[in-house]
Amino acid sequence: MDSITASEGMHYEGTCIRPPPEASSILLQVTLGCSHNRCTFCGTFKDKRFQIKADDIILSDILFASTYMKGQDQVFLMDGDALIIPQKRLMWILERIQEHLLWVKRVGAYANTKSIGMKSLHELVELRENGLGKLYLGVETGDDEIRKKIDKGSTAQQCLEMGRRVKDAGMQLTLTLLLGIGGKAKSLAHARVTGELVSAIDPDYVGLLTVILIPGTPLWEEHERGDFAMPDERGLLMEMREMIAHTNVSHCLFTSQHASNYLLIRAWLPEGKQEVMDMIDAALRGEIGLRPEWVRSF
Ligand code: SF4
User: Fold this and answer.
1) Using a 6 Å cutoff on CB, does residue 219 contact ligand 1?
2) Cα 156 to ligand 1 centroid, rounded to whole Å
3) Residue 170 CB neighbour total at 10 angstroms
């Protein structure tokens, strides 16, 4: 391993995604794809079979970053759920980051209920003490009927328990939620229980996304058969309003910065709750313009 040096570039493979707040982070791809890869709305990693990348490739990328990415003080571990990496190996990656990227202040990664469940509280604390300070958990909805239908692979109760475990470990927790995933039929019910689940987990950040139907995914096929109908723009605004109305948290940045959303909001809750609901009402009255369809992306 000692003979590895910074190569000609980062070894990115296939489609790579990161959350909006990680736009300035060093993007270190440590896994390919997502270990779950079954959510019916998601086409992101359909081109990849899940695997953990080889240690020498990961080290080569860290060394490349150590030479060329000195201005970036955060690392984001891609792809889908880097937390699924066994503890010893994940610790090795964090130690190499600490060794070679001395200026990095915090490492982040996507996680899911399964990957969090595979780590004890003690192991999460150990990861946090070695730099892994922020996890992004894709909750999408608090409605178990919808969760089953979209093949999320876990229940709202498991989301609650795993979200709390991350918080108990002292890590920052971002929940991602999905507007429109209940379709027209369950739009407001999805909003209410999701807001209640967020309140129970009490995360540091919430990132909202809006469903975009991706050709080839099971949800797209459902829509083509006439079995799934998305709320329209007005319906989505009302869904977002209902979700925020049912969200009672102690201190949380609630945003819809993602490119899939029609309306950009950014508010600290609970202080900014009324202001952001007034903003949505203004958008419902047509006083605030929405993001045009052609610039939306998932
Ligand atoms: S939404 Fe997340 S957990 Fe589901 S398949 Fe896509 S990457 Fe995997």
Assistant:
1) no
2) 16
3) 11
- Amino acid residing at 82: A
For residue 44, the ligand 1 atom closest to its alpha carbon is 6
- Angstrom distance (rounded) from CA 242 to CA 236: 10
Q: Do 211 and 180 form a contact (C-beta atoms < 8 A)?
A: yes
Tokens of 135: 């996890």
> What does the pLDDT look like over 204-219, one tens digit per residue?
999 999 999 999 999 9
Q: How many residues does the chain have?
A: 298
Ligand 1 close to Cβ of residue 44 (< 6 A): yes
- Is residue 37 in contact with ligand 1, taking CB distance under 6 Å? yes
CA of 212 to the centre of ligand 1 (A): 14
- 135: helix, strand or coil: strand
Q: What is the mean pLDDT of residues 270-282?
A: 97
Strands 106-111 and 132-140: parallel
Nearest to 12 by CA among 25, 24, 30: 30
Residue 31 CB–ligand 1 contact under 6 Å: no
As a whole number, the mean pLDDT across the chain is 94
Q: Is the pLDDT of residue 7 over 70?
A: no
Q: Kindly report the protein residue whose alpha carbon is nearest to atom 5 of ligand 1.
A: 37
Q: Which amino acid is at 250?
A: S
Task: Return the minimum-mean-pLDDT range out of 3-12, 32-41, 260-269.
Answer: 3-12
